[in-house]
Amino acid sequence: MTMTRKFTGASIRNSCADCMLRYRGLCRSVDDRDAEAVAALESSHSPVRVYDAGAVIYGQGEAGDHVFNLISGWVALHRDISDGRRQITRLLLPGAMFGAKPRTQERGHTATAVTNVTVCPMPGPSLDDLRRRVPALNEQFILMLERDNHRAFEWMTTLGQGSAKERIATLLGDLAVAVAGEAALDAGVIVKVPLTQRLIADATGLTSVHVNRLLRKLREELIIEFHNGILTITDPWKLRALTERAGDPLRHAAGARIGAGPPAYVAARIAQARGSAPALADQPGG
Amino acid sequence: MTMTRKFTGASIRNSCADCMLRYRGLCRSVDDRDAEAVAALESSHSPVRVYDAGAVIYGQGEAGDHVFNLISGWVALHRDISDGRRQITRLLLPGAMFGAKPRTQERGHTATAVTNVTVCPMPGPSLDDLRRRVPALNEQFILMLERDNHRAFEWMTTLGQGSAKERIATLLGDLAVAVAGEAALDAGVIVKVPLTQRLIADATGLTSVHVNRLLRKLREELIIEFHNGILTITDPWKLRALTERAGDPLRHAAGARIGAGPPAYVAARIAQARGSAPALADQPGG
DNA sequence: CGAAGTCTTGACAAGACTCAAACTGGGTGG
DNA sequence: CCACCCAGTTTGAGTCTTGTCAAGACTTCG
Q1: Tell me, what's the pLDDT at B28?
Q2: What is the pLDDT of residue B35?
Q3: Residues 110-169 of B with CB under 8 A from A
Q4: Quick one: CA dihedral B195, B201, B205, B211, positive or negative?
Q5: Which helix (H) or strand (E) holds B172?
Q6: DSSP annotation of B216
Q7: Which position has the higher pLDDT, B277 or B173?
Q8: d(C-alpha B147, C-alpha A151), whole Å
């Protein structure tokens, strides 16, 4: 009954200092002591909005050009296919910016609140204006787009190359790091990850049934445990082995094999790559 | 023997007018009549480089911060995992910009020439400078990053949700459109797509053997034909049906089913989504 | 208590991968 | 000119992973 409510006006405030906009994400770049920049920032954004879990912040195909700063709660960005399949392309934690898009295009994905969330919306034109007036913010904006791209490439690699087990391990490992910092994978932590198995399935491109089976397997192998939104990293080292961390390309190709080692055709690639250059194509060029 | 050569200095030129930088991609935004902007642009980039097919333009883990404009040829961006697996995250055609990244981070992927290519490199600091001096170029730069993000979301969806057949069809369909324009999917075309089945496999997250089988199937079903780098779209309509085109979320959910229609659990999602709002999560919020 | 959604498990089917072998075409070197 | 090699392609047979369907247990909320 609550989930269709668009957003409550109850807790609307209109100051960046209140809504934390200035301290997280995009607006971290604004210098507090620069009165003019602060004024420009504060006057640029719309009142803060509160959404209930499950509410749609914006939908695929819509035209709106607000850019959002996530203040509290988790948001999922996802693409829906008309036959009901859905891919969660990104899970956002507080501090994230989302919703940036070319002015002329409609939204290519939906943003849905996973938990109750608070967001700070900024109209596209205001942001464009602000970027021109506050160069540091322009740079921060670009930085965040570049990071988004990088993350997208990482997740594409996991989706395309990872086994189901690796995908789940990578997703949960990344989220643990996002919540608890890099230390999460050194020491092992217990963190709140407010996802259902169905959401994990939508993010990893698997079915929820299979996610369930693999979570059991991961638990039995004492790697990670996930129950009821509580994630426990039982063995950070085993988890790290499942997580691609493609960091250095072929530097330590000989070691660091997962499980029983790569199949023959993969070993062949390694051997080849060791030769001189990891050639994608080999047509002798002119 | 040719593939390890880094780049030939033979055809290095130093004018944007020559290297087409001004007319494609990033630099389309510079007004020819703005003498100052043109001068700034021309003085910003380094000499044009020529790479042979298979050569690495930059490698995952490197520190260089050049941004590139692709002038001619095809380039693949890909992430390599240390055990030999590889995901091609993007295939670039002339006019594309690539290599932008946060100043402080190392490259998260490798760029490899798929064919012989010509690129126009621009040092990161020069570009930053140029962006500040030429606002239109700053906007174009942002636009291209936003488009990259959008494309990444689309491809993630295809990788995560598509069957092998859909992935291959989507990849080749998109490339046909990139080469021949939107008309490619209306009329059906014959275009050059200089990929091997292995490269298609690396882009779709499949094995080359499986790609081969499915290309045969697609040929037998008279949808597309791919031989020797020549792509023929036999039946644009059947191809369109395989290609997700997630455009409008649930607008035409009833029609437009692929093949035998969605399985039961997907139909359930559609029914649910029709209700009121396509809820991702349902925890009644406070 | 009933409804709805999630989680869990089993049995089975389908999809994708693995390994192996043969075939293709273009280049290389004798 | 031919034999050879190479990378890419093609096909078959068998295995393993993942999806499908179904049913029951558990939670939360009204």
Answers
A1: 77
A2: 80
A3: 110, 112-116, 128, 132, 135, 138-139, 141-143, 145-150, 152-157, 159-161
A4: positive
A5: helix B164-180
A6: H
A7: B173
A8: 15
